[in-house]
């Protein structure tokens, strides 16, 4: 799209919605479909996306790593999980705080969890939930409190429960099945008790979401029958089958929780992560083209109904299968769930099986480092998909075969705002009160009325703000709940900063007036584009404007060969010293996975191999190198690689360190 056409479209859109085309004093940060349609956006840098991981406490899967840790050790471990989430550019965590009818907070309803101290009912010496919420919010991560509704214990011996446990004091509330203890979902008093236990945490703590997992009625165990026939006889009048009655019991819990949560705190999000298959099309024409376990029939979870009735704010189906899996293909289920949520207002967040990537014994597809990343590429086909949750934190950290690194490099290169929910009023534009260079970067301060803020940085000194600056996340530097920020990634160029405010449900207001930070005193920085006089290449290098991720008007491409034929970027280096070298290239799945970049450093050339299939459309650092003074070919892109796919030469930035 030409700059002129884009300007016309933006102005026309502004007229339609009754706003003035923004200036530096008041630029609209609206990411509505109409404005986005007028801007070239990059699907690899979406402005809004939920990115989260499950932090599981049951059986000490993730946190705490074992029972009996000291308070300081537990807290240090949890901070490390949050710091991992931040490093991976996530914006939420889903933390299990009621794993087995127990509590990670001082609940008046249920005992302290055994997974904290090793002994059910023992006070851990602090309030873990208060601590966790505060630490998450300090990093501007949403905290979703994860509850397992019916599971009492991973054993079937009631005498092993603490003597004050409600399941011991009310033996008629429970049943044993498959070697485990469960609350009976068909008893109204049980449903009220579970809701009260959950609502205690919602009412007393500043959680951002309530999250239920996929455990409703127990998963089937061969040769066993759920022992609730007497309960059905007592409460099942009006239901043709015990299955219909069981589904209604679960539906009542979901519907009533939805009402109670939003009645107490409208801003709190309510979500469920069901088993990935509702029903198969062979059973029900409304079902998916799959042939696996049906949660509607097996565990009495009518997840499709929850969406159609609007009883949840988001649904996070566990689509834990690989692309092309014959029983339940990832791409088939993602398309099916997208169709289910369409036009309902319910957001679709995919549950991803990070635990399978590179794990021993998994199918060959999961030994491919690209499998997990390819799931997110498939998501881009469906605008209904607004994010992903990864199970579980320890697998994100393990990063077996580099699978999660691939996810981050291809999909999480920039921060992202959380999807907005509801229709609250966006906060007023903040005012940047100071912006100055310091030894550690550019320090910003502002005033505003937001719950959180988004900080944008645009290269150059801008006299006015283009709405397209804010259409995706390519210019988004960070989000924060503070009113100060130090941009440690700033180089020596001139920049214009903008800050917008967000409310509790993530509606974003207009950005502030732009604040220009001049180029650093004495700092040298130069950009050499392939279209400029500093670029040279042989006739074997073609020219293309195909990718919207390009720098400038076009870029150069060439087939790999077993010979030296580099494209060179020439620059005038003012004095000998250390310089940071960055490169820009558009990425594509068909480009080269091992493109050699050559840096003509003092003392000899250095070669850095870059995967150009991902991470494009932004400056990527090759490193800091000693360079000699003078005008010469500083950076080259070589064709000499055994990998397949075009090698790309687009632009280079060289900055005095």
Automatic annotation (TrEMBL):
One of its GO terms (biological process) is carbohydrate metabolic process. Residues 49-367 form the Glycosyl hydrolase-like domain. InterPro entries: CBD-like_Golvesin-Xly, Divisome_Glycosyl_Hydrolase, GH, GHL10, Ig-like_fold. It holds the Pfam family GHL10. Residues 1-29 form the signal peptide. Keywords: Signal. Residues 526-656 form the Golvesin/Xly CBD-like domain. PANTHER family: GLYCOSYL HYDROLASE DIGH. This is Uncharacterized protein. It comes from Nonomuraea diastatica.
């Amino acid at each position: 799209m030409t700059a002129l056409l884009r300007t016309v479209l933006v102005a026309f859109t502004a007229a339609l919605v009754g706003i003035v085309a923004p200036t530096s004093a008041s630029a609209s940060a609206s990411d509505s479909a109409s404005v986005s349609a007028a801007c070239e956006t990059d699907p690899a840098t979406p402005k809004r996306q939920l990115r989260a991981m499950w932090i599981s406490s049951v059986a000490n899967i993730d946190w705490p790593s074992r029972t009996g840790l000291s308070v300081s050790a537990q807290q240090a471990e949890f901070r490390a999980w949050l710091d991992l989430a931040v490093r991976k550019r996530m914006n939420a965590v889903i933390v299990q705080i009621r794993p087995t009818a127990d509590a990670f907070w001082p609940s008046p309803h249920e005992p302290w969890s055994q997974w904290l101290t090793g002994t059910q009912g023992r006070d851990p010496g602090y309030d873990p939930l208060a601590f966790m919420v505060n630490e998450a919010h300090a990093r501007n991560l949403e905290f979703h409190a994860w509850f397992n509704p019916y599971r009492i214990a991973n054993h079937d011996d009631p005498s092993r429960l603490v003597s004050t446990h409600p399941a011991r004091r009310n033996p008629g509330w429970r049943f044993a099945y498959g070697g485990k203890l469960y609350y009976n979902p068909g008893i109204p008093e049980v449903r009220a008790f579970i809701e009260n236990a959950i609502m205690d945490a919602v009412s007393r703590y500043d959680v951002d979401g309530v999250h239920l997992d996929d455990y409703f009625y127990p998963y089937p165990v061969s040769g066993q029958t759920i022992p609730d026939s007497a309960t059905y006889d007592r409460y099942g009048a009006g239901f043709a089958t015990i299955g219909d009655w069981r589904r209604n019991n679960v539906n009542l819990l979901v519907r009533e929780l939805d009402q109670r949560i939003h009645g107490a705190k409208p801003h709190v999000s309510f979500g469920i992560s069901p088993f990935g298959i509702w029903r198969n099309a062979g059973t029900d024409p409304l079902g998916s083209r799959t042939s696996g376990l049906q949660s509607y029939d097996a565990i009495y979870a009518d997840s499709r109904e929850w969406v159609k009735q609007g009883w949840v704010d988001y649904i996070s189906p566990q689509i834990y299968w690989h692309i092309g899996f014959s029983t339940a293909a990832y791409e088939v289920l993602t398309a099916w769930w997208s169709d289910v949520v369409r036009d309902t207002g319910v957001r679709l967040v995919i549950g991803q099986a990070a635990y399978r990537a590179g794990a021993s014994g998994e199918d060959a597809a999961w030994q491919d480092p690209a499998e997990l990343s390819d799931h997110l590429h498939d998501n881009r086909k469906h605008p209904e998909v607004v994010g992903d949750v990864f199970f579980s934190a320890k697998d994100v950290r393990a990063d077996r075969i580099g699978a999660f690194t691939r996810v981050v490099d291809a999909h999480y290169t920039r921060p992202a705002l959380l999807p907005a929910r509801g229709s609250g009023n966006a906060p007023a534009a903040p005012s940047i009160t100071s912006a100055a260079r310091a030894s550690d970067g550019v320090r910003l301060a502002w005033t505003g009325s937001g719950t959180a803020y988004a900080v944008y940085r645009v290269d150059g000194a801008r006299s006015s703000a283009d709405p397209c600056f804010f259409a995706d996340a390519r210019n988004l530097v960070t989000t924060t709940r503070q009113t100060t920020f130090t941009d440690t990634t700033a180089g020596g160029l001139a920049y214009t900063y903008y800050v917008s405010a967000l409310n509790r449900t993530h509606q974003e207001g207009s950005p502030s007036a732009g604040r220009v930070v001049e180029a650093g005193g004495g700092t040298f920085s130069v950009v050499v584009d392939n279209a400029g006089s500093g670029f040279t290449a042989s006739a074997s290098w073609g020219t293309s404007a195909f990718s919207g991720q390009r720098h400038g008007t076009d870029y150069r491409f060439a087939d790999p060969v077993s010979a030296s034929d580099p494209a060179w970027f020439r620059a005038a280096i003012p004095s000998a010293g250390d310089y940071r070298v960055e490169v820009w290239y558009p990425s594509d799945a068909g480009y080269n996975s091992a493109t050699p970049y050559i840096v003509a450093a003092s003392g000899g050339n250095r070669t850095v191999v870059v995967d150009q299939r991902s991470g494009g459309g932004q400056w990527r650092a090759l490193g800091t190198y000693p360079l000699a003074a003078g005008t010469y070919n500083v950076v080259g892109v070589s064709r000499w690689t055994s990998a397949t796919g075009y090698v790309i030469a687009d632009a280079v930035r060289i900055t005095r360190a």
